[in-house]
Amino acid sequence: MTLAAVQRPIADPDLGSRFKEALRGVASTVHIITASDGVRRHGMTATAVMSVTMDPPALVICLNKSTLLHDILCCARSFCVNVLDETQESLSTAFSGGVPPAERFSRGSWCFDEGGIGYLEDAQSSIFCEKVAAMPYGTHSLFIGEVRDVRFGVSQTPLLYHNASYCTSLPRMRAD
Question: 4-27 burial, b for 16+ CB within 10 Å, e for fewer?
């Protein structure tokens, strides 16, 4: 099966806003995705991250084509997905435009691998990936990364984003 990006005109002009409203009702884990192309290093907050397969371990990230990270990732071979914990809301805000790109890595406990890719020392987890495929679609591109390493922090309570607000999950009491 060959995948081809087919773009069709939207017949319903309100469909996009209704779709966005529907997605606001879906709670998503908050991540900071980082990459370096050898010259530039960048990171940005994202919720569009999803596992693809366990064999081989892989995930997909979705980035707007107008972002600097998209530009870097088109040239870069690797990236890192840092899963934020519930205490890292201010870091998420900084990497979502609250702080200029040149100042972002001065916030938080960042380390850098041999390729210059940032990983957050106290993230819930940091997932290091090798980019194996990219597919443009509409205003975004999907980048598939094959997992090469995973590092874990102490926290196991992820930061979530739901209905344009940060939140956390609470385990339900089981009725045994």
Answer: eeeeeeeeeeeeeeeeeeeeeeee
